[in-house]
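Deliverable D2.4 — example input (structure tokens):
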């Protein structure tokens, strides 16, 4: 079954939210989608904590999602993220295997 690579980012300084949002929209999400070879990608902000941003990359096979963390593509994107945001944004990552899907 399919899988998802998920990045959770927390902005340390809320005043950076608009700049981060614009950068992620215009640069990072499209670059990551291409670099990862993902089937699709989407992102959004938490409604509970406005400093939390999630990006989700979908793959038709969970093995492809599992290969992302050690990949050259990931190393390049992490370097670019660190150059742009340094310690102003904290990140964590997860991989989720799709077990069931109902509906579209």
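Example output (designed residues):
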């Amino acid at each position: 079954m399919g899988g998802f690579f998920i990045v959770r980012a927390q902005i340390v300084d809320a005043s950076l939210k608009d700049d981060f949002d614009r950068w992620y929209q215009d640069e990072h999400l499209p670059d990551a989608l291409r670099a990862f070879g993902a089937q699709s990608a989407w992102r959004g902000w938490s409604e509970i904590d406005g400093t939390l941003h999630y990006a989700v990359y979908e793959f038709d096979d969970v093995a492809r999602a599992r290969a992302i963390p050690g990949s050259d593509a990931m190393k390049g994107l992490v370097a670019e993220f660190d150059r742009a945001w340094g310690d102003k944004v904290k990140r964590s990552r997860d991989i989720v295997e799709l077990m069931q899907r109902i509906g579209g």
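The mean pLDDT is 96.
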